[in-house]
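Repro:
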Amino acid sequence: MKRVKYKKIRKLQPNSLEYSGAFPDVPISMQLFIYDENNFEEHNDLSLNEIEEILKNTNPNAVKWFNLHGLHDIELLKEIGNFFNIQSYIMAEILNFSRRTRVEELDNIMFFSVKAILPFSEEETDISVEQVSFILQDNILLSFQEKKGDFFNLIRERIRTKTGQVRKRDASYLLYGLLDSLMDSFLTTLDLVEDNVEQVLIDAKNKYQKEILVRIEEYTQELHDIKRAIIPLREVLNNLLTQHAKKEAESSISRSSMLFFERLQFKLYEMLDQIEYNLNKLDSATNYFFSAQSNRMNEIMKVLTIVSVIFIPLTFIVGVYGMNFEYMPELKMHYGYFWTLGGMFTLVILMIIYFRWRRWF
């Protein structure tokens, strides 16, 4: 698995609606869900005029979820902003992909922008980051995505089948559900990275290849990049919960839904703990790898040292009898050559026995 890739986005001027993303050719599609506890409507691939006609004849107390795929049509975004009475700078923020995860609340409108992790698939082997934006206004929730994905399929099915609490609660609970679905993508990605971390731990103990260090560094970078996407979201939820405690009446999120946002906060802390745990395991793998390499090198040096020590006296003997003196009595012995070799062999055996007795190898 390759590392997380943050798209390099050039920064835009405030209030400037200009698409600078990576999906300029994605077909634009709009989806509208209208529901309450007893009724449900789903409309796909509509024009903005058709959506306007539908909303005119809709129960004002029903929850409306408007979802847009494709953000490269600037004129359409301006029309959407005018139709839903959204300030232009907020619409510009939807297209500002260089900003961190953040939340802004003004005039009963809550703007939520999240960096979502996209796990790799069979078609795409990279983990990338996509910005998903939400606008919560009364009982209407607007979501904006650069391209179609399966982030929210579970929420759609719950609405269609009246499963869970989505149909029984307000739009702020729907926002919680969508954010929770995005966090599930973080968990999926973490599970994939964790499997790789476990494998590299096994390889670090059984193999002595430089490629293991490269993999450790790649997985470490992946975990740091995922952490980079999670920490701003944690800060945003902390600020949101703090502000709600101070001015509940002015918040776009109901008190009952705020309890679920606290669950999101706990889930983020659990993910950060999981990331730190895996980073510690990678540190342990690195330390084990270098310790194993050092021990292996020490074993090699010990063997080479023993071999050198064994050959030192043999080299001395050979040196003595290699001197060109005229009078060396041993040179005249009939079996001198064989006695010398036998003595050298016996010396080697005795040295090996002594080394084994001293447990030097």
